[in-house]
Design goal:
about 35% helix, disordered C terminus, VC0802-like, alpha/beta, about 375 residues, Rossmann fold
Length: about 375
């Protein structure tokens, strides 16, 4: 995410737990919403101040010039998140923020906006730590993992921005062959193809900032046109996917056809335990459908050692990355991870395990004193 923001020209970039803060013009927000493959939302900070009570929060929100951002005819929703907040009720804080916004409109415009908790025009976000409240406007609307195309969803799909993040963490580039041997609906492979083609993930969808006062529709149109012109029509890339579940593989095929990626992504109906490496070296990246299509504990305990044997025998020279919430995977797969990165898939805590596959087995190389770190 930091690298994306640097490339887009953001200033004062500061990676924090759960997000990245940056500075720039409001126009930069257009670009980040359009171009970021990893962000979930882009929030515009309006205030950040100390508080002691709900009354302080009301006062901070009330004095903001909300009418400069949206009209009284637009509907609003307030969402509050907190970490180590000493106040008794976040629901009451949410109510006080909503009251402050509506009261500010009433004082200035003699009318107040309506609340819509399901499909609002404007989402106001409050974040409280133990000392300060930060007030944001959500410039994205729908989460950014909802790309500008209508994907047919497979069972338990991985989110698109998480797939893009995994590709970055794995160090994948278009020069490297990529295999997802349990590809489901094809999300990881499709993200890789779009990265190679330079397709902006936000093209074709709408954003909340398009409803803001002062939105520059002509500038936005120019930005989108320039993004389309940067796309690469012909890309030499090796992307391979397979799945033993024929139904979900058909979903992957339909998604690739919809996006015109069928010639870039090679799919086959196959069990991962029967696969051969499609190239001499490359990156294997997968989010195994643990406990769903492969069964529960007993079947997993049988599957993972066999999967480990396949990796050792057929994929030496490759780097394998397994993204899973199952902490037993390294032990069951009988390979020593060279790296593990903690990540979240929604609220589920997961790990991305890296295995560098060498001929003769990773453990043997460690005993001989030849490291692979």
């Amino acid at each position: 995410m930091v690298q994306e923001l640097e490339r887009l020209g953001a200033l004062a970039i500061d990676a924090t737990q759960g997000g990245v803060e940056f500075q720039g013009s409001f126009t930069l927000g257009y670009y980040v919403n359009l171009e970021s493959r990893i962000a979930s939302r882009v929030l515009l900070q309006l205030a950040k101040e100390a508080y002691h009570s709900e009354h302080d929060i009301y006062r901070i929100v009330f004095r903001l010039a909300w009418w400069e951002w949206f009209t009284v005819q637009q509907t609003i929703k307030v969402k509050v998140q907190a970490k180590r907040c000493p106040l008794a009720s976040l629901d009451f804080v949410t109510l006080r923020i909503k009251d402050a916004v509506c009261d500010a409109f009433m004082k200035k415009k003699k009318a107040r906006p309506h609340v819509d908790t399901h499909n609002p025009d404007i989402q106001i976000v409050g974040f409280l730590d133990e000392r300060r409240v930060t007030v944001y406007l959500d410039t994205s609307g729908e989460p950014l993992f909802k790309r500008g195309w209508s994907q047919i969803r497979a069972e338990a799909p991985i989110r698109e921005n998480l797939a893009a993040g995994l590709l970055r963490l794995a160090g994948w580039t278009e020069a490297l062959p990529l295999l997802d041997p349990m590809c489901g609906g094809g999300t990881i492979l499709i993200e890789a193809a779009h990265m190679a083609k330079r397709v902006a993930p936000g093209l074709g969808r709408r954003f909340a900032f398009q409803t803001f006062q002062g939105f520059d529709a002509q500038l936005w149109d120019n930005i989108c046109r320039a993004s389309v012109e940067k796309q690469q029509a012909a890309v030499s890339v090796s992307l391979f996917g397979s799945d033993r579940n024929e139904k979900v593989l058909r979903i992957a095929e339909m998604n690739c056809q919809t996006l015109g990626l069928s010639k870039m992504i090679t799919l086959q109906h196959a069990d991962v335990l029967t696969l051969d490496a499609p190239r001499k070296e490359g990156i294997l990246l997968s989010n195994p459908p643990y406990g769903v299509r492969l069964g529960e504990y007993a079947e997993l305990a049988e599957f993972y050692p066999q999967f480990g044997d396949v990796l050792k025998k057929k994929f030496f020279g490759w780097r394998a990355y397994i993204f899973t919430a199952d902490r037993r995977v390294p032990k069951m797969i009988r390979l020593l991870p060279t790296r593990k990165v903690p990540l979240f898939n929604g609220d589920l805590e997961c790990r991305l395990y890296e295995f560098k596959l060498v001929q003769g087995g990773h453990r043997k190389r460690r005993r001989s004193g030849v490291g692979t770190h």
